[in-house]
Design a protein that fits this description.
Radius of gyration: 22 Å
Order of helices and strands: EHEEHEEEHHEHEEEHHHEEHHH
Structural class: alpha+beta
Shape: globular
Distance between the termini: 61 Å
């Protein structure tokens, strides 16, 4: 079933949806961009159709809705602690196919990882229903087709926006009443079939090849290029690293709250152990860890797809213009070199 909405009709539908859901979508924040006189686009609650940014990729991913930058886990006093309150109202999350895939990746990590379900993630994920926003192919940093995240059927609604309104497909019968009396039409969502940027992930199943790749000199390039700022992982749709911090209230250190705060494996000291030893003390070693995790370790552990969904936000966000796509191509060249040496 499909519907054709004008902007005013879209506002009426959104108003009705907001009675039952918190509706999140990419939203523009003027003058809050990383450079002077630039805007920021990130996921936030929207109140009107005009708030939804559908023609430009957001600077930050949808994961901020389910796993915020800062999240209170529990409150404590000298004698007891109390978990933060469960959110009650369901969430309708308008996201592109790559961001929907990214949440499927995060769900595998947070749920059942080592037999442990992350309570704080699960209580948010159980509230979320996806509405898929058609994508126009993104920009020159997108490579979702290469990563297989360009298509999805995990949605209750699908939208094709335009300057005049939107076409909507209702895939979940529960949402039909919100569109009662509106003009019906045939609409089937379209998906991106080709990106300008293409990435080929190397085969790393051979443990000998993996071991030699870890020692390859290509990683030393990043000792001078990467500044270990962590911008790439904050902008990444699938990264899940965090730390915890205790916030004391006033002068009493025994009264306060514990927060989960987004962190990054690319920042120096993230993996520091007792005795001040770091497992990955150089930027090149940290880059190697991240790239292996995205393009081998995750898939080896969970199966299915790689961890990267090809959204390209890390490429746009890096202040040193390091491209993950170019890094994977360098891996390809290194693997070919290693395999040639092994066959000689």
């Amino acid at each position: 079933m499909g519907y054709l909405l004008t902007m005013d009709q879209g506002d009426d539908v959104l108003k009705a949806l907001r009675k039952d859901y918190r509706v999140y979508a990419p939203k523009r924040f003027p003058q809050e961009g990383r450079y002077s006189d630039t805007d920021m686009i990130r996921y936030a609650e929207v109140e009107s159709f005009g708030d939804i940014v559908w023609d430009t990729k957001s600077d930050f991913p949808a994961k901020e809705v389910l796993s915020p930058i800062q999240q209170t886990l529990f409150y404590f006093t000298e004698e007891e602690f109390r978990a933060s309150k469960d959110p009650q109202k369901p969430i309708l999350l308008l996201a592109r196919p790559c961001d929907i895939h990214a949440q499927e990746v995060q769900s595998r990590i947070y749920a059942g990882n080592g037999g442990f379900d992350d309570y704080y993630y699960e209580r948010m994920r159980n509230l979320v229903t996806f509405a898929m926003m058609e994508c126009n192919g993104g920009d020159d940093t997108c490579f979702c087709v290469s990563m297989g995240s360009n298509r999805t059927d995990n949605y209750a609604l699908a939208f094709r926006f335009s300057g005049d309104g939107a076409l909507v497909q209702v895939a979940d019968e529960a949402f039909k009443p919100y569109f009662s009396g509106l003009p019906e039409t045939e609409y089937h969502p379209a998906f991106v079939e080709e990106n300008a940027l293409k990435v080929s992930v190397p085969d790393l199943d051979d443990p000998e090849v993996r071991g030699l790749l870890r020692q390859h000199p290509m990683w030393k390039e990043y000792d001078s290029r990467c500044i270990s700022c962590g911008s790439c992982t904050v902008a990444c749709a699938t990264c899940t690293c965090f730390t915890t911090r205790d916030i004391q209230y006033g002068d009493n250190p025994e009264v306060g709250e514990r927060r989960r705060v987004t962190d990054s494996c690319q920042i120096a000291g993230f993996d520091q152990m007792a005795g001040q030893r770091e497992l990955r003390p150089t930027p090149g070693e940290r880059m190697r860890y991240k790239v292996f995790h995205k393009y081998y370790d995750y898939k080896a552990r969970f199966g299915g797809s790689h961890m990267c969904v090809g959204c390209g936000r890390c490429i746009r966000r890096c202040p040193e213009c390091i491209s993950i796509a170019a890094t994977v191509e360098k891996m390809n060249a290194a693997v070919a070199e290693i395999k040639a040496d092994l066959t000689e």
